Amino acid sequence: MSSQPPAPVDAAPLGLILAAALPPLLAFNQTPSATLYNQLLALAGWGLALLLLARATPGWRNGLKSPAALALALLLVAPLSSVLWRGLPSSLGLGATAILGAGLAVLLVAQGLSREQRGLAAEALCWGLLAAGLASVAVSLVQVFLPAWADGTVIARSGIPGRAVGNLRQPNHLASLMMWASVAAVFVTERRGWRGLLVPLLFACVFTVVLSASRTGFIGIAMLAVWGLVDRQLSRSARLALLATPLMLGVSWWLMAQWSAEGHAFGAASRLAEGAGSPSRLAILRDAWALTLANPLLGVGWGEFNVAWSLTPFPDRPVAFFDHTHNLPSQLAVELGLPWAGVVLALLAWALWLAWRGAARAGADAPLRRAALMLVLTIALHSLLEYPLWYAYFLLPACFALGLALPAGGAHAAPASARPWQVVGGLLIAGSAFAVWDYQRIVVIYAPPADAGPLDERIAAGQRSPFFGHQADYAAATTFPPGRQALAATRRTAFSLVDARLLMHWSRSLEATGDVEGARYVADRLREFRNPTGDTWFASCGDAASAPAMPQCQPASAVLDWRTLR
What we know:
This protein is mostly helical. Among the domains are: 122-274, no CATH class; 465-564, no CATH class. It contains 25 helices and no strands. It is globular and about 80 Å long.
């Protein structure tokens, strides 16, 4: 007796729309993390999507053999191994594991969808991205032209005059969202036959990229034009609209130039005046490569680039504090080592090749696969210049799009159990809700209410948080008196954040515990950053009467291994 195909899941498209649309639009946040709630909403939203799609994925087991799934599985091991063998705080390891595990689940579900469901899922994803994009257009217009209307709760305030940042509060993230909305607009208007709407939709997205002043976004617009040039299966009107995106960029620039001529700030003009490249980004790539060569086999450890780079002598280092190399291959190489990163990157390249080869073939699902591939390629471009895939609201849609672009796993597959995805979906929803509650232990440390308890008690409660204990550690490291307790907290929070304030307190705690050489070494690193906090602290070294009381006025006598300090 043959098995019956799974029944369509009517609510699944709505779940996908919500998962794609809502996370980028949430403006409400609480100190100290500006985008935590966006990420938790993405995890919960995709958890709901997994629950609703679970019964429509008969071939998800076939996806386990795909190179993309293998790559994500290899990455999933990384934070766990760093927690067990490298000292990565469990709070950081749990967060990374949850996001990567969700990405793997979303990828497998997308690959395992039946042919009937793939088209519905792709359209729902694009509707969600288009809705998020159009709402972000409105948000951006307010941020640039009516900034007084931005209340910080419904519409985020832009901290950069003349530039839009969207509700994700980052111009580059806004630009990438606009690229996704542009691809979604092409797919939806082609599928629905609403071709007259494509030009205004694309112009709105391009104009918003100009408002963001994102150089990555300008390159993305060129990618849209290339798509229109090479994809002959698109309608003539769609190809012409895509080819016209550089012209839209020029018109948008001219309009904003007229606006700025009246005395208003135009962020893109000043941004491009800095040049096409970024000297600090090139410098961080140079330093990351030096760290990779020093740790070629196993890298510095997942999540350890921040502390490894900050505590390694780099006299010509960028003065900004970086917790990421801003380049996906470089980040994987420096943290995982060349063999591990090489295998992961080779598997991802193989997956992109399979997606490209499938999209190049003519067929009923070719438009779907080409749009999905474009979603992946645009965020891959961003990943060479930033780190968007470290955020759940970009990683999860990208994994789902990659699953749609790859060969269907459910074409001739025996039905597989839906239970794993129901469990994973439920865990993501429940875990996200718990994380919102858990985060309040951190909020009261940095933004205490009127009836808040003593700071020491709030910090101690925050340090017990399974997801955010490292953020409480930062408060302990920088507010407790220099000594063993502050030093222990410093060593934990350094995996998440190293800045001038932390380096200064780190040095003082090392001095207080008797490690004068370590104190001097950390102070030397602070000098390299040429930061006002450090300059103020070291100002006493010029006073002969004060200098003897501060061992950090003298340089360290030797170079220490950063691992001995963390």
